[in-house]
Amino acid sequence: NAALAHYSPSNGSSRTLSAGEMYLFDTGGQYLDGTTDITRTVHWGDPTPLQKEAYTRVLMGSIDLARLVFPSNTAGRTVESFARRALWEVGLNYGHGTGHGIGNFLSVHEWPVGFQSNNVPLSAGMFTSIEPGYYRDGEFGIRIEDVALVVEAQTKEPFLTFEVVSLVPYDRRLIDLSLLSLEQIQYLNSYYKRIRERVGPELWRQQLVEAYEWLQQSTEP
Q1: What pTM was computed for the model?
Q2: Would you call 27 helix, strand, or coil by DSSP?
Q3: ∠ CA 217-65-188 to the nearest 5 degrees?
Q4: Which terminal residue of the chain, N or C, has fewer Cβ atoms less than 10 Å from its own Cβ?
């Protein structure tokens, strides 16, 4: 069912999950200090080579856009293709937007931030999702969605970049490391280190031992 970019369940289409397939879950919540919108795709068995490559290329696009440095007041549509490039290289694509504004305890899809032609230019302080994907009709769907904050880059001139604030590991079973560049691997290791430092102590404080151990395994370099 995740082969549809926006799927709504019904009694006629619902079915039992199995461990031998991909599972996409789009999650979110409203909190007094912010709104979350995070999507992860996982596989509990042995993914096919196509599933691994497609997932890895979606992840590459997410990383490439997240670590991009760009001039202030750049339109989102100008940088959107960085999220698609790794997929385009092998003739793959996705048929939805790459991101949308996210409100502070407000709308999950908040106008006018995003990466489409009718969105406003990006500026520091904006929250947007970054969510490339890939969908194969009747077989599986992949999407990786993070919430990112537009921040000032450490450059001589006033440039911008993104800080991903969603702290959730990616599925290691689905990553083909041979496709990643050294810079992408370094980004992943830095991201995993940040997850361990910020989320790990809170899980330990709440005595969520099983979740803590899962987090340690999922964020190994």
Answers
A1: 0.95
A2: strand
A3: 20
A4: C
